[in-house]
Amino acid sequence: MFDLGASINVMPTSIYKSLNLEVLFNSWVFSKDVLVQLNELIFPADFYVLDVEDETSRKRSTLILG
């Protein structure tokens, strides 16, 4: 077992709103049943494409989860 130091934080929208933080904006796209080919195998996969901002540099990046 490896500890890669990764962390995912998830919070319900209702809790976020109750904290009176900055306004949220839609920053993701969902792609469903995308056909992915790996050598001879082809299978459907779902992907989330997130638009994220680095907290220190304020630079925007795209993160693809699937």
Brief characterization of the structure:
With 66 residues, this protein is mainly beta.
How would you sum up this structure, described in words?
There is one protein chain. This protein has one domain (13-65). The chain contains 1 helix and 3 strands, in the order H-E-E-E. The protein has one helix at residues 13-18; strands at 28-38, 41-53, 60-65. The chain has a 3-stranded antiparallel beta sheet, with no helix packed on it. Strand 1 and strand 2 (41-53) form a beta hairpin. It is elongated, with a radius of gyration of 16 Å.
Mean pLDDT reading: 75
Q: Helix count, per DSSP?
A: 1
- Give the spatial strand order of the biggest sheet: 1-2-3
Count every beta strand, where a strand is a DSSP E run of 2 or more residues: 3
Beta percentage is over 45%
Shape field? elongated
Instruction: Compute the CA-based radius of gyration.
Output: 16 Å
Keywords:
66 residues; mainly beta; 3-stranded antiparallel beta sheet; 1 helix; 3 strands
What topology emerges from the helices and strands here?
Elements: H1 13-18, E1 28-38, E2 41-53, E3 60-65
